[in-house]
Amino acid sequence: MRLLHTADWHIGRRLHGFDLTDVQEDAFKQIEQIAIDEKVDGILLAGDLYDRGMPSENSVSLLNKMIQKLNLEDRLPIYAISGNHDSAIRLSTGAPWFEATKFYMATSIEQAFQPITVGNSQIFLLPYFEPFAAQQYFENEKITHLDQAVKAVVEKIKTLFDPAKKHILVAHFFVAGSSVTDSETQLSVGGLAEVPLSVLSDFDYVALGHLHGRQALQADNAAYSGSPVKFSLSEADQEKGVYILDTENMERTFKALQPLRDVTRLHDSFEKLTNPIYYEKIGRKDYFGITLTDTKPIPNVLARLREIYPNIVSLDREKGYQPSINPRSLNVKNQNPMELLDQFYESIAKEDLTEQQKKWAENALGKANREVQK
Amino acid sequence: MRLLHTADWHIGRRLHGFDLTDVQEDAFKQIEQIAIDEKVDGILLAGDLYDRGMPSENSVSLLNKMIQKLNLEDRLPIYAISGNHDSAIRLSTGAPWFEATKFYMATSIEQAFQPITVGNSQIFLLPYFEPFAAQQYFENEKITHLDQAVKAVVEKIKTLFDPAKKHILVAHFFVAGSSVTDSETQLSVGGLAEVPLSVLSDFDYVALGHLHGRQALQADNAAYSGSPVKFSLSEADQEKGVYILDTENMERTFKALQPLRDVTRLHDSFEKLTNPIYYEKIGRKDYFGITLTDTKPIPNVLARLREIYPNIVSLDREKGYQPSINPRSLNVKNQNPMELLDQFYESIAKEDLTEQQKKWAENALGKANREVQK
After folding, report:
1. In terms of domains, do B177 and B99 share one?
2. What is residue A16's DSSP assignment?
3. Which of A156, B26, B186, B231 measures 20 to 30 Å from B157, CA to CA?
4. For an interface test with B, which of A62, A72, A97 has the most B Cβ atoms less than 10 Å from its Cβ?
């Protein structure tokens, strides 16, 4: 059996104010095509379908369309769970009807104990949950942290193991030791919200959601598929895609997606970035995080760059505007105001005051002094 | 065939700040019981399932439970439409799956032209829609008002009529000449949002939603079921319930619901309302709109009444606090301050200042005068 593993669609997400709808739609179409080309037997969708618990009507419409396409038109079974960004209650709407077409949408902890047997495997769907939900479910007040909660869940799941089958878990949490990016919401609020990999060792494969980079975890029997779309500049260098899992040997193959608009860093001088010879070679519609090597002030820098690169998500200077002299080390009280201004201007603008600027400053200082003496 | 006609559940609605969840749940259970007792073949649910387009998680959970109970457990077909309070997009979530169990959830105008043939009838589901949607659907920019829009829709529906069948329409709009209460949202925003009854004359029955009182419209072939719960004081005297429609003769029978907590007006003196002989005979947990006949000030009146009637939704005076003398007619500048106070107090409190009150006022006035003269 072949399964496609994806997660963290975050429908409705924005990137520094930019609407990602068409990028997400395009990534979806690629995922659908991969599912068809690879003749998969189902989709593992490991949580964070929406970016927020109260998604907009546009987001609801978009996700509904995607799920209907996969499940009703392409007739692909879907094994889905809710993530920490989803409202479990909202996402559960209609779920009892969905199973008739093999769309399994698990949103509460007890559903983890209703394995779906398909092909050579048992699939367990464990949605994102708070330790408190496990405390209630197991009636055990000692469960206060996520690692304890997942351990209890896994112990119970193991009692349901059919030894003749492979065991696949779909889950949404942070596995201890994984590396993070800027775009994931930290799960831990005053608690240890990490699950040690060892807790998951009895599964043949754990299809994880939550972390947005597939490199976040290096493990034989567990992987984050990562998000299909880059959600922050810190993901600029990641390759996004999905896994195809072969349940015979539990080998996974990564299938990359080509972003409609990539998230890219540019690091160069203003002169070079605004030179057609440079920018005509690159995809100017990408989302750019630009770091300028310039030190001098550049009037209207953002507006001028946006004429060339319409989707700038951040702009900074390599060396910042850090003054080269620490102002606190200056003996300020004993210095001539014009000298101080001169030094200050030089430290910020990396150039000297012009003669005209000096004249203006001297006039202003003279006027200010006369006011004080009155 | 027998159908139950209900509408305007408005799950999530509050009554002057009071949560109606348990009242709505109780009304639902009664509706379910009527459906079972009357052995109906289906439920017509004519819009405004939710009170708002973005319902809370509690509301989503409650409505999901109700629909699942009726359709999946009781195996009752449901013929539902979205109303002006619903988000059509949100309510459409899962709809393509629902039809497998005969739960029809229509949320867009084109679904009105997909009649469901069942028993001796064709059922047409016309959700609430804006005239603009009809303008787009019919590609006719002359459609700007609701009456024109519904007329165009009905003309098209009639081309789909099977002459061997009865024709039932489920719809959510304001029929011209109907009477309103305080709890319906006016549909008309700068447009004529009324549908003449004559437009509906070719239907054997029009199961309407939108107006909350079943008496709103008097017609042979069309009725508002009204809401199952009272949503305002102006509905205090209404009897709430559902219709049972017999599709053989198109006769409808009203089945009343008993409210868990009623909405009631009380109109009496404070003394009487706080007398156990009076209040121990009535359902003190009801929602009360109280009008006091008293004219004198009553300290802490609301708090004292709430000790007896915990759910007071409004409190006013029969005669208000209207002063009997128009203060503007007084020759204020030439009058003694004590006389003015005397007149003012009498006009508001309907009684004279006591000797003690006069003494306090004189002391205060004297002190104020001395301050001014300093």
Report:
1. yes
2. T
3. B186
4. A97
